[in-house]
Specification:
Keywords: Amino-acid biosynthesis, Cysteine biosynthesis, Pyridoxal phosphate, Transferase. This protein is an alpha/beta fold. The protein contains 8 helices and 10 strands.
Length: about 300
């Protein structure tokens, strides 16, 4: 008998109905990506980027990989590197939660911190500089086509099958934009009328996992034509909805997931006969030390 390995457990996550928070006649469904082995939607592209680099001959076991991350991709890459036998160096802002830093180290990754002021832009610049000095190989989730392909071949088909093709709207936070780009390409290929809704924080707010990129740092994989509507989300609304999800639905999720569900609820007020699918990116346990669940 052939038993699965841990990498076989990436994907095929549940799609569940929002029960108490949705007061409209529309259906709101949540894709629980925290059920992936390393706890987030980023497990999919992390594994796919390493597998793709292997297939293309760009890396081989024992190589040192470098990546800038705000958290979830780093944890997922640390897991994937452990599975595949790579050294993983992760660069991230120092204001990330303790749980995220510890999870990366638990998988054996080396962690380099930049200041919160330097942010993800500074982390990306440092990763590029290290690669230029020959200190490792950057996978570059922001420009790597294996990022959205993980969702073209995984997340998108799963949602289509789980909704039996009834999905009318797809809602996703935009960070690297890999999820929304890949799912959009697949779903639009099945039904061009499906509306793709992307989320970014209002100017000045900070929501882990959602970014409002300066033009110079806009991910190369992003194509604005694949997004029908962009909604600005307030940090307070994302956090309030995240707490409500745990208390009213029993769904323990992170801040960006709160933003996605808030957007889905707002959207449901203005449409009819809709089946809205929102991505719940990760679990809430990696945000506990930030105090967001204590308020």
């Amino acid at each position: 008998m052939s038993y699965p390995t841990i990498e076989d457990c990436v994907g095929n996550t549940p799609l569940v109905r929002l029960q108490r928070m949705n007061t409209t006649s529309n259906t709101i469904l949540l894709k629980l990506e925290g059920n992936n082995p390393a706890g987030s939607v980023k497990d999919r592209p992390a594994l796919n980027m390493i597998q793709g680099a292997e297939e293309d001959g760009h890396i081989q076991p024992g190589d040192r990989l470098i990546e800038a991350t705000s958290g979830n991709t780093g944890i997922a890459l640390a897991m994937a590197a452990a599975i595949k036998g790579y050294k993983m160096c992760l660069i991230m802002p120092d204001n990330a939660t303790t749980e995220r830093k510890d999870a990366m180290r638990a998988y054996g990754a080396e962690l380099i911190l930049v200041s919160a002021q330097e942010g993800m832009e500074g982390a990306r610049d440092l990763a590029d500089a290290m690669a230029a000095r020959g200190e490792g190989i950057v996978l570059n989730q922001f420009a790597n086509l294996y990022n959205p392909r993980a969702h073209i071949h995984g997340t998108g088909p799963e949602i289509w099958q789980q909704t039996k093709g009834e999905i009318t709207h797809f809602v996703s936070s935009m960070g690297t934009t890999g999820t929304i780009m890949g799912v959009s390409e697949y779903l639009k290929g099945q039904n061009s009328a499906i509306q793709i809704v992307g989320l970014q924080p209002v100017d000045g707010d900070q929501i882990p996992g959602i970014r409002r990129w300066p033009k110079a740092y806009l991910p190369a994989i992003f194509d604005s034509k694949r997004v029908d509507r962009v909604m600005d989300i307030r940090q307070k609304d994302a956090e309030d909805t995240m707490r409500r999800l745990a208390r009213e639905e029993g769904i323990f999720a992170g801040v960006s997931s709160g933003g996605s569900v808030f957007a889905a609820l707002e959207l449901a007020k203005s449409v009819e006969n809709a089946t809205i699918v929102a991505i719940v990116c990760d679990r809430g346990d990696r945000y506990l030390s930030s105090g967001v669940f204590s308020e």
